[in-house]
Design goal:
- By secondary structure, this protein is an all-alpha fold.
- It has three domains: 263 residues, no CATH class; 106 residues, no CATH class; 299 residues, Four Helix Bundle (Hemerythrin (Met), subunit A) (Up-down Bundle), CATH 1.20.120.
- It is built from 24 helices and six strands.
- Helix 19 packs antiparallel against helix 23, helix 21 packs antiparallel against helix 22 and helix 22 packs antiparallel against helix 23.
- The relative contact order is 0.05.
């Protein structure tokens, strides 16, 4: 038995000399230092059990050496030397999958050119001269000798070097999915069956470890997040080499068995398996930036039952998120994006300039969100992150210097949400600073008062003056109206009214929309459209400059214009009823009392509508809006208050509900205008009978339409006695004249 052991040692030393000489020839061609022929091993103090391998824990960055009190630089084994050579001195080669000029006939079993070595890894490349000595027949050796030889080969394979009895099989270059990163091995058939089973259980670790290295090499320079993840994987690789060096040391001291190696490598195998699956999926799905972080967070949630592996993935995710969080910090603190690989969740469309677009279009299109690059842990804050950087950008464009004295300790920890308060603080600071700029430097409050004065008809003398001077022009067909003339008449009206002292009066302009206000509401509510008329197409527009357009944007202006058009149209109908009665009262007709009664009911209804909209809805809501606006301190609250104000006004004015209400109001106004036009026509004495019948027809049509409108209000309000729409019903039906008709068939 002693003779056999001595023979085995001699054979092992002979094979080691041959392999070292072969490797020396290769290293000489690379002009790199040769691996030491007889490395000086670091002797560690044995534990009471004689075990120097790490306890049953998976490898995590910086834990192997710390746990064993073992410094890899003190170990002169071939594995630490190999890792140092490959990581520091070996010339950089092209990554896997990168095109190069080579003949496929000269390719090795991996599909790479002969002599090509994957970036920073061995990858089982053939080394000329290795294994030239005679290969021993395992069947002729005892079990202990077989185990020593196969352990030596196994450690070689785990480090990415070909063995004598364990050889990697050529990879299928046409493989799909994760199979393209896997390595399959063939074990010598003469190896004892019991040993072979253990070897097959350990070899997946070699396949996964090498697959991780291939994925790292293939994703080199694929973005800051990928680079940070790869750097952490390289640190794990170094710790793995330390573990192999310790295993080799015990093998040389004849203290390592195959079962012992398998036992202590099991946790590491599980960890490498999970890492291999993760990095392979990242590579196969072409994930980048925030998508990589989302994938890592998803894996962490799946590993709730395996705490040790979960901790390793938490470390991976934290390190990979460092460059992403730096980009985030720069954006929310200075409004600057440094993202050459398009990894960040905010995209800067640099080809869009403020001078080429309207302010609100520029605001919406210059900086946008990349949905694919939003990490899952930032999904809830993505809109706030976007707005924070935008606000900082606006402040800088206004010539203000952003002096944020807060400390931004922005880091990502998958176990908590410590980044959320930092983002919120940055957001509120930016919103408050921008709000101060809008209020103090750009007179936002003055602009809001001007909008109420003109678009909500608060400036009564101006509206009457404008309608007097523009009535002739607005009475024309829309194609005959001259916008330039309207603007001139608008300027005249402003100068003749008390609005001449308004510093923002020049922001007001006239507009003609190709549809009336009811058709506009029909489009918004997806109802049937009607052909527009000329007078009904008029609208005021209030133009503001940047950055006031952040508050008074296109959407907000459209809502103000909807309120204006309904008020303006009702005011126009009221004026026509007054004008027609003045002209008709000069005539002597037998139907004067009937005409007076119909006209008065029409006038009361239109005036009640105006009073309800302006006094009961707009005025109290506006007062609440302004009072709250004086107390807030950031832009977000201002936008929310304005949105609530407009919603309440549109809802209570029946402009946000079904267009049946708009149709009823519009039809009532149309009947009134037709009636005014009818009674202004000259009628001959023999036509008086027909005239009286026509007046009765107008009376019936108006009454039926009004009753239908009141029924709709009552149905909408239901039993809610606090609904303001009921105020309109009681105001129109103040004396109970329509009560019986409303209750009939209700």
């Amino acid at each position: 038995m002693h003779y056999l052991n001595a023979t085995d040692d001699a054979i092992s030393r002979s094979r080691a000399d041959e392999q070292t000489n072969a490797a020396a020839a290769v290293f000489k061609s690379w002009e790199l230092p040769m691996l030491p022929k007889h490395p000086t091993r670091h002797k560690t103090e044995k534990s009471p059990t004689g075990n120097r391998l790490p306890p049953s824990k998976p490898i995590t960055p910086h834990t192997v050496g710390k746990h064993l009190n073992f410094n890899s630089s003190d170990c002169g084994s071939r594995f630490t030397a190999t890792s140092n050579i490959l990581s520091s001195e070996y010339p950089q080669s092209k990554a896997i999958g990168e095109k190069s000029n080579w003949n496929s006939q000269d390719a090795d079993f991996n599909g790479f050119p002969v002599g090509h070595v994957s970036n920073l890894l061995w990858d089982y490349c053939k080394v000329e001269g290795k294994g030239l000595g005679p290969k021993q027949k395992l069947a002729s050796l005892p079990l202990d000798s077989q185990e020593n030889l196969i352990l030596n080969d196994l450690i070689y394979c785990l480090s990415g070097i070909r063995g004598e009895y364990i050889e990697p099989q050529p990879r299928d270059l046409q493989a799909k999915g994760m199979d393209k990163y896997k390595t399959h091995f063939s074990v010598d058939k003469e190896l004892d069956k019991s040993l072979k089973e253990i070897v097959h259980e350990i070899l997946p670790l070699a396949s996964h470890f090498m697959g991780i290295q291939r994925a790292v090499a293939a994703t080199e320079q694929s973005g800051q997040v990928i680079n940070a993840l790869n750097a952490e994987l390289i640190r794990i690789r170094k710790d793995f080499y330390v573990l192999l060096a310790q295993a080799e040391e015990q093998l040389s001291d004849k203290e390592l068995t195959l079962a012992k190696l398998h036992y202590y490598l099991q946790p590491t195998t599980w960890l490498m398996d999970d890492i291999f699956i993760t990095v392979s999926e990242i590579q196969l799905q072409h994930l980048q930036g925030g998508a990589v972080l989302s994938h890592l967070c998803a894996r962490i949630k799946q590993l709730e039952s395996d705490q040790s592996t979960r901790n390793a993935f938490i470390e991976l995710a934290s390190k990979a998120a460092v460059p992403y969080m730096k980009m985030l910090k720069l954006w929310i603190q200075k409004g600057v994006i440094v993202d050459s690989k398009r990894e960040f969740l905010v995209e800067d469309n640099k080809n869009i300039h403020l001078a080429e677009l309207s302010p609100d279009e520029y605001w919406e299109k210059r900086y946008t969100l990349r949905s694919k690059c939003i990490p899952t842990f930032l999904e809830m804050q993505s809109d706030r992150i976007l707005r924070t950087g935008k606000y900082i950008q606006v402040i800088r464009q206004c010539g203000k210097q952003v002096m944020n004295t807060m400390v931004f300790n922005l880091e990502f920890d998958p176990t908590n949400d410590q980044h959320v308060p930092v983002i919120n603080d940055a957001y509120f600071f930016a919103a408050h600073t921008l709000y101060d700029v809008l209020i103090n430097d750009h007179d936002l409050m003055g602009h809001m008062q001007s909008i109420k004065r003109y678009l909500l008809l608060n400036q009564g003398d101006f509206i009457m003056q404008f309608m007097d001077v523009c009535e002739e022009e607005l009475s024309k067909n829309i194609g005959s109206v001259q916008p330039l003339k309207l603007d001139n008449l608008l300027g005249l009206s402003l100068s003749l009214s008390s609005a001449r002292s308004d510093p923002h009066k020049n922001n007001l302009h006239c507009g003609l929309l190709p549809l009336d206000y009811f058709t506009q509401m029909s489009q918004l509510n997806k109802q049937d459209q009607e052909e527009p008329s000329g007078f009904q197409s008029f609208v005021f527009t209030y133009e503001v400059n940047w950055p006031i357009s952040l508050v008074i944007n296109r959407t907000v202006m459209t809502q103000y214009q909807m309120l204006f058009r309904q008020l303006f149209y009702c005011k126009h109908v009221e004026r026509q009823l007054c004008k027609s009665w003045k002209e008709y009262s000069m005539k002597i007709t037998p139907h004067e009392s009937c005409v007076l009664m119909v006209r008065q009911r029409m006038m009361n209804t239109i005036q009640d509508l105006e009073y309800y909209m302006m006094v009961e809805i707009i005025e109290p809501n506006w007062k609440i809006f302004i009072e709250k606006m004086k107390k807030i301190q950031n832009l977000e609250m201002l936008l929310s208050l304005q949105s609530d104000f407009l919603y309440l006004c549109l809802r209570d004015n029946m402009l946000a509900e079904s267009s049946h209400f708009n149709r009823a109001v519009f039809k009532l106004c149309e009947i009134c205008l037709k009636f005014c036009k009818f009674i202004q026509c000259e009628s001959k004495p023999d036509e008086m009978i027909a005239f009286g019948e026509q007046v009765k027809c107008f009376d019936v049509e108006f009454t039926d339409t009004l009753i239908t409108f009141l029924k709709q209000i009552k149905k909408l309000s239901g039993n809610n006695i606090t609904d303001r729409c009921m105020n309109l019903l009681h105001r129109i039906n103040f004396n109970g004249f329509y009560t019986d008709k409303i209750l009939n068939d209700y």
